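WARN no homologs supplied; continuing
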Amino acid sequence: MADTREVTPAEMVDFDEALRESHVLEILAQLDRELIGLYPVKTRIREIAALLLVDQLRRRLDLSAESPSLHMSFTGNPGTGKTTVAMRMAEILHRLGYSRKGHLVAVTRDDLVGQYIGHTAPKTKEVLKRAMGGVLFIDEAYYLYRQENERDYGQETIEILLQVMENQRDDLVVILAGYKDRMEQFFKSNPGIRSRIAHHVEFPDYAADELLGIGDLMLAQQQYGFSPEARIALQQYIVLRMQQPDFANARSIRNALDRARLRQANRLFAKGGKVSRDELMTIEAEDILSSRVFQS
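OK structure emitted
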């Protein structure tokens, strides 16, 4: 039966004021500016932020609640924004009082697992010490333990992680990241880790038009731009590049633009003489079309 008694001011909190104080909306807006598309991911991050804010408001009214579990899994192909989202998630956690520092420590297996007996534990504990008060982001987490190698020391890292994820979850959030299928296999092999992951966020691949927009954004951030013909050339490049097995979403676009800038620089260098501001800022079609992608 619903509570029909009158609610006093002392039993109310201002949601809008709490949002303003936390600056969470600013962080979410920054995420929108940084990453094109990824709407399911951004929606999930907003949902997690909303959960944490409500939990914070409940505490203000002395409503008892167990601290929400915050360890996460980010799955998706390379170049889909997992590290960027992890950085913004660390800021959100800090703004809402769920982490002391709000920093992100990003590592891989090589940073955690030793190469000889007695090397792994101190190596793992040193990384955990650096990450305390913030977020530990472990990319390609499934490489932590290689079952085919009986002498692999990764299991020691996993055991230490399990203890910290449970006993110090109020002072450290762990985000495990990697390919979806490999992460699923990793969780099957390590049910203890799966049971500690509260939020599974899947990062979809970008569509061709989104990758084109990413290219525009990347160049604009460096005060470059495409000529109309170059933008058409990049569209063609994206269609061809997406068909190649080593395609890595936004990472591949960034690499392509780095090479285009290199070709532009060499083209202007070979031309010599006076050069205008527009020429220094403009990527031309030939800077894109010289890619090996068009010659394969």
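The longest strand covers residues 173-178.
OK
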